[in-house]
Amino acid sequence: LACEDYKKTESDLLHRKAEQIYKAFVQSDAAKQINIDFHTREATARKIKAATPTCFDEAQKIIYTL
């Protein structure tokens, strides 16, 4: 749900929102850490630096297939 909301975010707010989602769900010590592999976690960390609307797509696909 957070990723779907993120995709609708205005471009000037994407970076800040990407950081918030990463810290809340993706980083290895996140309070609500999602179940993704190390490779996907690292790839997502790199992608949020560019903060595009699709930077969480790979992680989202993995979660949907669980």
UniProtKB/TrEMBL annotation:
The keyword Membrane applies. One of its GO terms (biological process) is negative regulation of signal transduction. The keyword Electron transport does not apply. Keywords: Cell membrane, Cytoplasm, GTPase activation, Membrane, Signal transduction inhibitor. One of its GO terms (molecular function) is GTPase activator activity. It is found in: Cell membrane; Cytoplasm, Cytosol. Residues 1-66 form the RGS domain. It is a peripheral membrane protein. InterPro entries: RGS (IPR016137), RGS_sf (IPR036305), RGS_subdomain_2 (IPR044926). It comes from the Eukaryota. PANTHER family: REGULATOR OF G PROTEIN SIGNALING, REGULATOR OF G-PROTEIN SIGNALING 1. This is Regulator of G-protein signaling 1. It comes from Sus scrofa.
